[in-house]
Write a structure and sequence with these properties.
Order of helices and strands: HHHEEHEEHHHHHEEEEHHH
Distance between the termini: 18 Å
Strand order of the largest sheet: 4-3-2-1-5-6-7-8
Number of helices: 12
Number of strands: 8
Strand content: 5-15%
Shape: elongated
Largest sheet: 8 strands, antiparallel
Structural class: alpha+beta
Helix content: 40-55%
């Protein structure tokens, strides 16, 4: 009787966990692949909402004038304005209905819902569209399928979370199995033998591509669990020494109310002075007189890090109250604040998105190639042995 080795244990764990979770992982990985370039696809499908023709020698409308114009036209209160570094891009404006703005002010700045978003031509002040479209609806469905398999309640979230834990184990056991038994065969794990039979090609696709994408797949899995389980999110925060998704709970600073109010142009000038580099800038404008204005700025480019610097300004004087630069944060806080970009792939701009897209595509293929490997092994075991020179092949049973 052959001895049951540790490698066989890893092989069995990898096999049966893969079979048990294969369908769910296929759906989760496929939807993750599709969602990677959501922003780019939406812009491609409706370019008129995201880009504008820049008039010769023209300057964007003054922010103060633009806000007043939009508030009058849309019958609401502008609560945010996003100004991209690209001069040929539209502004994104958040507008709260007048009644809601009054309610938020009476409640001390706590709103009852999200403001509506409008895309605006900064040179004409024309509203050119909203984020709602058939494409955005499609990606909304893709995201719900990715997060909870379109199953309402916590059931879908738990299924996806459990499958993600299994996926982590599959990657780790797969790495163990990738290392050859004989050291002289180690080079085989780095390449796909395309001139071999399809069974060998399929095995190499599973083994080699899985190895090359393993690091990114581990990052996706370990960060994705933050959305599935509160205990995991809290545990990761304890290990890292920094709270995960802390920014969601942070509120602007409280200030003393005065009779005067600075203008959006003054906020922008102050933010650009404190953060003197080209980049996308977003202003959050409070509807009450006791909340600070928040300006967030981030760099853009093919390799741009998905991190922003934040400045809080006195609403009445535009004086800086607090400056938070990403580069000044401790390493643990930097890593934790990048949990979402690390999961969705835009942590280093378009460059990392491309890498994540390829890795997700590989992950989508792994349940398929792995199942084919298993089926081929079953067929090999069930195939009767050829007769030997001493007689017929032994009959099972």
């Amino acid at each position: 009787m052959k001895k049951y080795t540790l490698r066989q244990l890893f092989n069995d764990v990898h096999l049966w966990l893969g079979i048990a979770s294969g369908l769910v992982l296929f759906v989760v990985c496929l939807t993750g692949t599709i969602y990677t370039f959501r922003e780019e696809v939406e812009q491609l499908m409706a370019p008129e909402k995201y880009t504008v023709a820049v008039p010769t020698d023209a300057q964007p409308i003054a922010t103060n004038t633009l806000i007043k114009q939009l508030e009058q036209e849309l019958q609401g209160k502008v609560v945010s304005i996003s100004i991209p570094a690209d001069k040929a891009s539209t502004y994104s404006i958040g507008v709260a209905p007048a009644a809601e703005a009054v309610g938020r002010k009476a409640a001390g700045g706590k709103g009852g819902g999200r403001p509506a978003t409008y895309f605006v031509n900064p040179y004409t002040g024309q509203v050119v569209g909203t984020p709602e479209s058939a494409t955005s609806e499609f990606f909304g469905t893709v995201m719900r399928l990715h997060r909870w398999l379109l199953i309402e309640g916590n059931v879908g979230k738990i299924i996806v979370g459990a499958s993600t834990i299994i996926f982590t184990l599959l990657v780790l056991t797969g790495l163990v199995l990738w290392f050859p038994v004989k050291r002289k065969n180690w080079k085989q794990g780095f390449r796909i033998k395309t001139n071999a039979r399809w069974k060998r090609v399929n095995h190499d696709l599973h083994n080699t591509l899985g190895f090359y994408s393993s690091v990114l797949l581990l990052i996706m899995a370990l960060t994705g669990l933050c959305w599935s389980f509160g205990w995991y999110r809290d545990g990761l925060g304890s290990v890292m020494g920094a709270e995960v998704f802390k920014g969601r709970k942070e509120k602007p600073m409280t200030i003393a109310a005065t009779a005067t109010t600075a203008t959006p142009e003054e906020y922008l000038a102050q933010a650009n002075q404190l953060l003197p580099y080209p980049g996308d800038l977003r202003l959050s404008l409070p509807t009450d007189d006791t909340t600070a204005v928040v300006a967030q700025k981030s760099k853009t480019g093919f390799f741009a890090l998905a991190a922003s610097d934040k400045v809080q300004l006195n609403k009445h004087s535009a004086e800086p109250l607090k400056v938070e630069k990403f580069a000044d944060k401790p390493l643990n806080e930097q890593i934790v604040s990048l949990i979402k970009p690390l999961h969705v792939g835009n942590v280093y701009g378009t460059f990392s998105k491309i890498l994540y897209f390829i890795a997700c595509l590989v992950a989508t293929s792994l349940p398929i190639t792995g199942t084919l490997i298993w089926v081929n092994k079953l067929r090999k075991k069930s195939k009767p042995k050829k007769p030997t020179k001493y007689g017929a092949a032994p009959v099972a049973g």
